[in-house]
Every structure is written in C-alpha cells, then in structure tokens.
Amino acid sequence: xxxxxxNFFELFNIGISVDVNKLELDEKVKILQGQFHPDxxxxxxxxxxxLALQISSHVNDGHKVLGDIILRIEYILKINNFNMDESKTIxxxxxxxxxxxxxxxxxxxxxxxDKEIIDVHLLKAKSLLKTxxxxxxxxxxxxxxxxxxxxxxxxxxxxxxxxxxxxMRNT
Amino acid sequence: xxxxxISDPAKSxxxxxxxVVGIDLGTxxxxxxxxxxxxxxYDDNDSELIPSVVTIHNNGDLSVGETAVIxxxxxxxxxxxxIKRIMGLSYTDIQNLNLKDDLPLIKSDxxxxxxxxxxxxxxxxxISSKILLHLRELAETKENKSLxxxxxxxxxxxxxxxxQATKNAAKLAGINVLRLLNEPTAAALAYGLESNxxxxxxxxxxxxxxxxxxxxxxxxxxxxxxxTDGNTHLGxxxxxxxxVDWLLDNYAFLKKYKPIEIKKYxxxxxxxxxxxxxxxxxxxGNSISLFDNDFLKIITPILDKTFDIVKNALDASNLSxxxxxxxILVGGSTRIHYIKNILEKKFSCNxxxxxxPDKVVAHGAAIQASVLSGNNKENILLLDVLxxxxxxxxxxxxxxxxILRNTPxxxxxxxxxxxxxxxxxxxxxxxxxxxxxxxxxxxxxGEFILKDIPSMVAGGPRIDVDFQIDxxxxxxxxxxxxxxxxxxxxxxxxxxxLSESDISRMIEDSxxxxxxxxxxxxxxxxxxxxxxxxxxxxxxxxxxxxxxLSPDEYNRISDELGALKLSxxxxxxxLIDEKINCVxxxxxxYVERRMNRSIKSLIAGKGIDDIL
Lengths: 171, 612
What we know:
- The complex is a heterodimer of chains A (171) and B (612).
- Chain A has 171 residues and is mainly alpha-helical.
- Chain A is built from 8 helices and no strands.
- Among the domains of chain B are: 16-184 and 360-376, 2-Layer Sandwich (Nucleotidyltransferase, domain 5); 390-497, Substrate Binding Domain Of DNAk, Chain A, domain 1, CATH 2.60.34.10; 515-603, Substrate Binding Domain Of Dnak, Chain:A, Domain 2.
- The interface between A and B is large, with 41 and 47 residues.
C-alpha cells in the first residue's frame, strides 16, 4: 500500500524540516482522517476496513511524531538512516557543568520554593532551548546529523528542565 | 463495501437502508433509539427509560426491564440491578472495590464472578445480554424489521476488558455492533448537531454508576476529544448508599429493613428533593425527612471527587478554564441542582442541561448509527482518545507504558522484545492497562505467550510486537520474529473471564433454536448486502473505473459483478456470500488504487490557505 510506505512528511505533504507549522499539521490530519477513519468504512469489505484502520493509525502516529519536537528530530535522523547510538555519551564539558548546576538548583528549590528564582531560570532554560533548536536547524541544513544527534540530547535535558520548573511554579 | 463513501443523492436507495439503532446500556436505565431524519426512542410499556433490571424466577423464567421490577418477589425470584458495575471485573476486583451492591455473587472458573441461581450460573455478560436482547426485541417489534446493527455506548473510562465484555454481551444478544461509542462523545454529538455550536466544551457525565468527563472541541462536523477521565465506580448509586448510611445513623428503626429497601427509600428522597427545601416520607407509620442542607453535606464528598476529575481532564487537554465555552451536563445524577450551581461558580461559564440528560447519550448513539450505516449522509467525524495507558510488565513488576492515555485512536505501536537466555523458545508478555507504576495497581488485560522462537543466543531474536488499538478502543496484538518472519506464534490467555472460544460456544448455544427463521433471515441479509456491494461498486466504476483500470481489469471486475447480480435470484445465502467475496477479492487492488489516488487529491499541492 503506497500510503503506508510514505514517510510522515510525505504523508502530510510538508517539506522535511525541524520546524513544523502545528496548525497546518492539525488541519491535514483532520482532512486525512475525514477520508480514512475506520468509521468511513463501516460498510466496507473486511479488506477496506483493515486498510482504513492501518492508514488511520498511520496518520495518528504521524501526527504524534511530527507534532513533538524531540520525536520529529529523531524521525528526521531515522529517515536519513542515521545510526542513533544510545550508548554514546555527551562529552561537552560546559553542558555537563550546566546540568550539574541545574540539578543542585532543582534540589534547593525543592526545599525552598522561590517563584522569582524559578522565573529567572525558566527564562534562561527557554533561551538555551531556543539556541539549541537553532543549532539543530543549521546542522540539518548542512546535513550534519552527528551534530543534530548531539544537540538532541541537550534538547531533551532542556525540555525536561523547563517542564520541571513549570511544575514547581504551579505548585 | 463503501468504496470511499460514494453517494448519489439523486438516486433513491431506500431499499438499501439499514435498520440501525443507538443503545445506551446504562447502570440504572437503558434506552434504544433510532435516528432517521428524527429521533425515535422505543418504549417499554410507555416508558422510554427501561430499567436495566433482570429478574430470575425460581422456575428459571426471566423478566427484563419494567416487568422485572414489577415481578420481583423476594421469595420466588432474584432481582438483579446495576449489573454494569461489575462488567469486566474479576471476582477479586469486586472484593477489593468493596462494592455495596448486594448481588449474590460467587467465584467461578478463572476468577469470573457469577450469580448462582438454582444451580445455573449467570455472568455479568449473560445478564447484560438479556437486557440487550430485550431492547432489541422492543425495537424490532415496533418497526417490524430485523435489526441490522447498533452503536452501543460505554463509559469513556471503561478499560479494554469492560469494552470487550460489552461487545460480547451484544454478540450473545444477536446484535451486530457497528461501534462502541464513549458516552460523553455520544452526548457531544447530539448536543453539537442540535445547537450548531463550535468551540471547546466539557462533557460532565454523571450517571447511575459511572462518572465520565471529556474535553472536546466541536467544529463543523468534527468532534475531537482532547482528553478524557473518569471513575467507573462513582455514580448516583454512591449517593444512594451515602443517604442510606445517613438514614441508618439518624433513624434507628430502619435497621430492621433490608438494605435494598432502605436504598429504595434513599433514592425516593433524593429524587423528590430536586426542587424542594425538604422532603418527608412515611414508612409503616414512621416519618423520615431530609433537608436540603443535610443532603448537600451528604453529597459534597462525592461531588468533590467529580470536580477533581474534571480538573485532571482539563489539565490533560492542555486547555485552561477560560478556553471552555460551555459545560454540558449528561446523566440522570446531574438533576441534582447543586452540580450546576457549583460548576457555574468554579468555571464561570454556562452550564447547559437543555437536552434531557437521560436521553442525550442514546440520541447521539442513534445519530452515529445512522451515519455509520450510510443512511445518514451528514459528514460527521468523531475522533476519540485512549482512556487508559497501555503497557507491558517489565522486570520487578513494573508497568512500562507503550501507549499513553489520551492518545488519539486508532493507533498502532510497535515494541521490540528479545530473549534473556540462550535457546529460549518462549516469551511471556503481560499486557497492562492503567496509570500506576506497579502492575499490581493496574489491570492485566491478558498474557500473551510467544512460542516457537528460533533457538539463538540470549538477545539474538528480535520479536516485533504490534499493539493495535481500533476506533472502539479495543486492543489487538500481533507478533513477528523478524529474523525468521514467523508471525503465527501468539497465544492469548485472558487474565480472567471468558475467552473468545467460550463466547462462540455461548452464541452457538443460544442460536440452535428456530432453524428456518434463521435461514430466511440469513438469505435476506445476504441479498441486502449483495445489493449494497453492487451499488457501491457500480458508483465507483462510473466515477473513475475507466481512469484507474485497464480494459482487461475493468472486465474482470464487471464479470464478477455480473455473477453476483445473478446469484441474487437464488435463495441461497452461501452462494450470495461467496459471490460477494469474489467481487471484493477481485476489486481489492482497485480499492487500493482509489485510496492512493484520493490521498493525492486530498493533500497534494494544497497550501494551508486552500484547505482552511
């Protein structure tokens, strides 16, 4: 089945890119589900029902992957046949230092919640996140998947940090 | 076959119309309705709300619905109520939940709870199937037609086992299930079509035994669930039991009555208090009264639980209070006016209850049934989510999530497993549903044994396990060993309850009556199905057959179509079914081509501006 062989960018007919327009993606998902959701084949043959279930699941999976920055970058690496070796460790000393400082901060905030300090660090983490995404984008432009993979690990940390800080802020 | 929902409004196809219904199988009451330009609710002795009650008489006879309530006599029969509360639960689950329902349950094989009456065992599936059969007969008698299919509603928070149990009960009742539909989604459908509103909404569905909340967005024809949450053991019943406790504390004389009777008085008080300051009733010369401030005190802990769940659902939807346009009340328990007042204060938005909260779910289910059957050409799409995360048991009794809750369905996920020991030939995978970390705090859906794994060193085999969730929220699992491509190596052991083969046997047992009736019915069904297939295929061939098919391919399909047409003249359902099968087989590649082409025309070359 051609549709099921398409990669998610082809499926939604959007260019392969680190950035994705969420609204455009949501709209395309709706259009495709409007055609392929199994409910549209409730009277169909078993074959049609099976195809519809597969296509509809594929569309939802694509939505999930392309709608999430981490999954999306992993997916770009995957379709470019980059070997994502989980065992490789980050050896960027500055970054590691930064994360050690962050975990100390998180620990002290856990004992003594200070919203102003949280806000300062939230701002900092967000700006680091933005820079990292920009770096990943330019690595992608120059087909440097190794650098993308390195920065993706950092991205994971920054997103985790931001979520933790927001959670602390809301308690 | 629908072949991409071709429809030609000019051509009347009334004889192809199917008789389909929506069924709200409730804890306290059930409804059955159809929707063909207008809503018809089928009544039982003039009552549209049909009590979900089955009375089993000592002589083995059964009464269902209204008559079951009237005919229940403690000495000559056993009256079974609120059976939905134990649907899909194991005997152990029920012990742990400490349900107050006084069902005479015993533990049967494989931890299945059963009711034992005169040495005959009835499971929750059996009892529910009796209710469904009663509903089916009411509708069939009214319309003088046999039922082609039904959409059955379930609480959004029902897990896989509870959904399967509901589907099996329907199969036992001889009902073809078009779709299981989540109750709040059904309500949203009815509400959305009636009001034509768009925006984000909360459905607050407080029924007799279950509480559900869904956050949805409605836009033209698309009903998209963002998140869902609930408690399948929180409902009007719990309010009744809370009143019972209060009554026993305050009126000692009640202690001499049976619990089921006190519950009846509790319910009477609750229902009579709706718009009054206080209510008194007389019981054998003793008067009991309930004031609204006492009532509020009694129900506050229960209502607070529901409000917490609403908050969780809203958080999970990534919306905030200010995004919510309306809250829609569903379920009989929302007649308690405090609920509306409190929600209005908490959310500062309009809380709506203008569609009868008892009927709105059946109404939505009936609409969906008519859409799915093709009777109703309205372009409606329901996009729902998985209510509870799915995982597999990992080392140390922990649940590793494979698909997170609130993921849009249908969805398929693949997980790769391998062996621990050299030469290991079997692998056991325990599938878990629930949010907690520990497997013991979640539900086990079943154990899957992967066998005939090729002998290799530990970690050598790669076994891809696919978890497919369909639009009903029901899971199916398949596995392939990728080094050998061996895919037929899966064996399913349900954690408890009935296996697929148990169900088939029960269906056979119930079918061995009225052979000729069955035969005639089957012929009729085959002819209708054959006509539909011909109609759909001819429409498709007319529209693009010449473009997508070579003359040779076109003729091959036409030939099979001709054979099918011819077969309709005989009263031979097997022959017709075989010809339908041939037509479907020979046109499979055509179906694929049409689907592939439609995706191109849908997406290709369209910018965001064209689509919006």
